[in-house]
């Protein structure tokens, strides 16, 4: 502080006491020129105006004095940023909100506030912040991209696509927007638009997908990519029609592919509930010199070198990208007969059981003898249950051929069964849940094999399938729930610690099963008719897959929806899963135990 200011303030106080207010005010004004942030000077100045009866002037002075106690918008913004670095999301939100009160027209603050809110899973509030940012900054491509991400997290994929398209229109040179557009169009079932944007993206940015796919040793020469080849015209949505010659195709193409339907699409309607829909058809496609590419999340099937058989492809945006990148991949040629069992997420227990293994049923009913098939393309076999189930079904280890996305495999004869349960969305809206024949296949093949395979010992009648070893979709009050359920005679089990046969036996003997939504409930397919199945969901996510399964098997199904745990400040989802976007399907569950008791 300037050394003259204290002296001036001291003289001004004496003048006020002696009634010389006007002179005191003049000294204060002189003092403020030396130090415009001195609280004492404003206090004396306000008193001076008050003694002269100048209330409005005194009010303005006191308002200024009040504002001296408030940090500036810049300071609040910086404090918010510091809290973000420390992952103190609630404190960051408070600082950003105070910054907005001071500077309500700053788009940058709204952007940062939205990010902090999203870390607390408060997506609707975050969306409102980004929308305000866009109103203030209408030509920000980044803002529209962030809006799209948040809308996806709120399960509003169509609105997210609109946001991504706005971002693309503002900045069509941004390579990252192509990844978002292709993925979101594919997830929305719009395969043609996904492939169209993949073509555009690869043409503008040939190395766009290098960090996503295993092409490190291949030059990204545009001439090696399928650019300008009108890829959308080479999509075959119905292999069955194409094999019959219903599509325009050369005689040579038609002779190279054959198709046989095993199960027609069937209607599913749950009488006492509002759920209804259709199951996908079950069929077999046989392709001479057919090609397939697959990884843990996608499978792409190509006939005739450049025809995408969309009805037997699974996955999201990668289907479009790999089709566009096909010419950049090396090809591994395999002699003889090869059957493709690999599907999207095929390593996960649910998809392994309801999508991968039932394709073996389609092969057999389609007239193919398993021992005459030279190899079976499967998702990487990493878990014991994969080994156990393949062995039970008579597929010897030497015939397992794992595919990992590093090349296309071309088979002399490629046999591809359709995806039994999780058919690609671009083929239509099918009900979320396995067809009846899938449930019957699993029971027929595994329940008889179970009998007598394990020494008979008592199993609990009431079980709770815990998710203590899961990284996401955990029950945040699970220990409390386990103790609560003990009072009703329930035993908590960790299925990961059991062999496949032990899991089958445990579920086949249960009378009541309580479980959070997750792969463990797949084993409800082995329950006896009349078994009560109580499924626990988070407040933002529901799935009908186990409800449909229960309907087919005559199980008594009940669903319990959890509380909004975000208001309870108990989620550490992002800390446990820093690389996983908090989509509602992964969200943790908080169960109201009193509500759960009503369903027991």
Automatic annotation (TrEMBL):
InterPro entries linked to this entry: Glyco_transf_61_cat, TPR-like_helical_dom_sf, TPR_rpt, Ycf3/AcsC/BcsC/TPR_MFPF
All copies of domain Glycosyltransferase 61 catalytic, residue ranges: 349-534
The TPR repeat ranges on this chain: 73-106, 141-174
UniProtKB keywords: Repeat, TPR repeat
Domain of life: Bacteria
GO function terms (MF aspect): glycosyltransferase activity
Record has Chloroplast as a keyword: no
Database matches in PANTHER family: CELLULOSE SYNTHASE OPERON PROTEIN C (PTHR44943), TPR REPEAT-CONTAINING PROTEIN MJ0263 (PTHR44943:SF8)
Protein name as annotated: DUF563 domain-containing protein
Species assigned in the record: Oxynema aestuarii AP17
Record lineage: Bacteria, Bacillati, Cyanobacteriota, Cyanophyceae, Oscillatoriophycideae
């Amino acid at each position: 502080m300037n050394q003259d200011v204290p002296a001036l303030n001291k003289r001004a106080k004496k003048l006020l006491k002696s009634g010389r207010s006007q002179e005191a005010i003049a000294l204060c004004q002189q003092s403020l020129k030396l130090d415009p942030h001195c609280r004492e000077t404003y206090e004396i100045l306000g008193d001076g105006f008050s003694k002269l009866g100048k209330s409005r002037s005194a009010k303005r002075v006191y308002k200024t004095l009040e504002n001296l106690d408030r940090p500036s918008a810049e300071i609040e913004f910086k404090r918010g940023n510091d809290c973000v670095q420390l992952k103190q999301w609630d404190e960051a939100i408070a600082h950003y909100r105070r910054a907005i009160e001071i500077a309500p027209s700053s788009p940058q603050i709204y952007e940062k506030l939205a990010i902090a809110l999203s870390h607390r899973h408060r997506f609707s509030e975050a969306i409102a912040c980004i929308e305000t940012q866009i109103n203030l900054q209408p030509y920000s491509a980044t803002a529209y991209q962030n809006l799209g991400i948040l809308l996806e997290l709120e399960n509003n994929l169509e609105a997210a696509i609109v946001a991504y398209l706005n971002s693309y229109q503002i900045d069509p040179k941004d390579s990252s927007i192509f990844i978002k557009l292709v993925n979101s169009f594919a997830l929305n079932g719009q395969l043609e638009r996904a492939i169209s944007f993949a073509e555009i993206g690869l043409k503008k940015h040939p190395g766009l997908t290098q960090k996503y796919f295993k092409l490190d040793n291949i030059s990204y020469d545009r001439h090696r990519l399928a650019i300008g080849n009108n890829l959308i015209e080479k999509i075959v949505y119905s292999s069955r029609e194409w094999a019959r010659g219903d599509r325009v195709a050369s005689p040579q193409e038609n002779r190279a592919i054959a198709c046989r339907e095993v199960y027609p699409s069937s209607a599913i309607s749950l009488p006492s509930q509002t759920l209804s829909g259709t199951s996908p058809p079950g069929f077999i496609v046989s392709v001479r010199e057919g090609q397939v590419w697959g990884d843990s999340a996608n499978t792409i099937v190509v006939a005739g070198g450049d025809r995408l058989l969309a009805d037997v492809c699974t996955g999201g945006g990668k289907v479009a990208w790999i089709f566009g990148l096909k010419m950049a991949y090396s090809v591994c040629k395999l002699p003889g007969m090869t059957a493709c069992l690999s599907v999207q997420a095929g390593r996960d227990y649910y998809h392994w059981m309801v999508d991968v293994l039932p394709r073996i049923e389609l092969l057999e009913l389609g007239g193919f003898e398993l021992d005459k098939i030279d190899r079976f393309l499967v998702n990487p076999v990493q878990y014991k249950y994969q080994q156990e189930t393949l062995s039970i079904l008579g597929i010897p280890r030497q015939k397992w051929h794992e595919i990992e996305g590093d090349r296309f495999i071309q088979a002399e004869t490629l046999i591809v069964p359709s995806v039994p349960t999780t058919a690609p969305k671009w083929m239509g809206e099918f009900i979320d849940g396995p067809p009846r024949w899938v449930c019957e296949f699993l029971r027929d093949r595994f329940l008889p094999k179970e009998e007598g395979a394990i020494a008979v010992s008592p199993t609990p009648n009431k079980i709770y399938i815990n998710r203590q070893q899961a990284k996401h979709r955990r029950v945040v009050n699970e220990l409390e729930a386990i103790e609560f359920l003990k009072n009703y005679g329930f035993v908590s089990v960790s299925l990961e610690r059991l062999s496949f046969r032990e899991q089958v036996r445990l579920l086949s003997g249960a009378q009541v099963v309580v479980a959070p939504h997750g792969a463990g409930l797949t084993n409800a397919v082995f329950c006896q008719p009349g078994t009560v199945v109580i499924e626990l969901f988070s407040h933002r996510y529901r799935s009908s897959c186990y409800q449909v399964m229960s309907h087919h098997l005559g199980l008594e199904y009940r669903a319990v929806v959890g509380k909004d745990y975000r208001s309870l400040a108990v989620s550490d989802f992002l800390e446990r899963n820093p690389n996983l976007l908090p989509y509602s399907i992964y969200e943790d569950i908080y169960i109201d135990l009193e509500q759960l008791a009503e369903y027991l």
